[in-house]
Amino acid sequence: MRNTKVIAVVYGPREVQNWSQQINDKALVRYEYNMANFSTGDRMRKQKGDRRYTEISLVIRQTVEACILTHLMPCSQIYIFVQVLQADGGTRSACINAATLAVADAGIPTCYLVTSCSAGYLNSTPLLDLNYVEDSVGGVDVTVGIPAKFDKVTLIQMDVKLPMDTFENITQFTVEGCKEITNYIREVHFDCIYRDIGALSSKESKLLAGNHSIAQVIQETLRTSSIISFTLREAVENVELEGLLIPKGWKVIPLFRAIHHPEKIYPEHEKFNPSLFEAQPRPNTYLPFGIGGYSCPGSELAKLEMLVFLYHLTNDYRWKVVGEEEGIHYGSFPVPKGGLTLKITHKEE
């Protein structure tokens, strides 16, 4: 994005300030785009109700929101603020890239990184990332956004009509530019992760940051062996659900084990299959820590602790079960009958 400079800040997930805007099954994503008065050569002042600002904010919000796992944060709000400090062409792409990196760095769960790049022609020569002077010529200008690891496009914008062959060529050219930016942003993101978990050794931090299979094993363990059997809720008003009336004051008991084992959502649900979590689960079908405003506030810490524990257990120790397996006792919490005795030895011993 040449000399374009952008700052992005992410707040949340946090409580929705206006309850009338709260969404019960996912997080509300709000986005604000702004250009500083000194961002261009000429001093500029934003007009109230500027349609260009509104349109750019909407496009960028929709592009970035597509990569956020909003269903994991119901009844909450995520606020993304992007400010252009210096504009030299490609501001839209720069804002998308800054926003997606800020979201990832803030620890917001995402299914992929989305990156953007612009391209155009200058004297019949295709150019990536046009600066202000090149863009001002008034030729072809196409902005593209793509998600990492997916063969699809989430954003295409262009200022002029193009012949189909020209459109295909310039779009493919721009997609290649997006892939280069994806690699760069991924490196920057990993550097931030290594910094944040710097208390671990360098070897451990790299393995934990990049080993998605361990996270999938933990997710599948929580699905097949739900710690929480059920929870208890009370209807504060009359609720009609699929033709059935739940009167005010009645108690409702959601069964988490039943939610995690339907055949139509989890094929061969009785088998342990971490690959089920290579893609994000459907909303309200995976609730190991509950859902809504009363979900476990320490869920992210618990996931990190399980990740670190499993890493050290599998890499540094050997263990075996002592005695015979007697099965599981399912009460308020599932526990092994007769307990579970392990013999653990360090691999260096």
TrEMBL record:
GO cellular component: cytoplasmic exosome (RNase complex); nuclear exosome (RNase complex); nucleolus
Cofactor(s) needed for function: heme
Biological-process GO terms, alphabetical: nuclear mRNA surveillance; poly(A)-dependent snoRNA 3'-end processing; rRNA catabolic process; secondary metabolite biosynthetic process; U4 snRNA 3'-end processing
GO molecular function: heme binding; iron ion binding; monooxygenase activity; oxidoreductase activity, acting on paired donors, with incorporation or reduction of molecular oxygen; RNA binding
Keyword Isomerase belongs to the record: no
Subcellular location: Cytoplasm; Nucleus, Nucleolus
Binding site for heme: 296
Pfam (any one): RNase_PH_C
Domain of life: Eukaryota
Coiled-coil regions listed: none
Protein name: Cytochrome P450
Organism: Kingdonia uniflora
